[in-house]
Specification:
single chain; mainly alpha; 3 helices; elongated; two-stranded antiparallel ribbon
């Protein structure tokens, strides 16, 4: 990845991915690694977060692709929907985080 460093110069940053985590496979193939959890509530909360985050991502994609093309009314409507999706995603993330902190799973 390329970005501006501390001196304002363009620098390349390399990320090392831990072996065996499934992260590299997910990034390169799009296939999701199988995740097993001993805690059904954590799995449920993670699924809710995943669904909410995907919905938020879709709304942002629509806004990005249709900006300048759709009517002002449609833009405002989708922007509101996107904000609601962002809030649902954040609430789902917080619920998952709270559960993990309280339950220790």
């Amino acid at each position: 990845m390329t970005g501006l460093g501390a001196q304002g110069k363009l620098e390349t940053v390399t990320f090392l991915l831990p072996a065996g985590t499934g992260i590299l496979e997910l990034m390169t193939t799009g296939a999701e690694p199988r995740v097993e959890s001993a805690c059904p509530e954590k799995a449920n909360l993670l699924n809710e977060y995943d669904t909410a985050a995907a919905e938020f991502s879709r709304t942002v994609t629509v806004l990005n692709r249709r900006m300048g093309i759709m009517s002002r009314e449609d833009y405002v409507r989708i922007l509101r929907f996107s904000e609601q999706a962002r809030i649902r995603s954040e609430q789902a993330r917080l619920a998952l985080e709270r559960h993990v902190n309280e339950h220790g799973c």
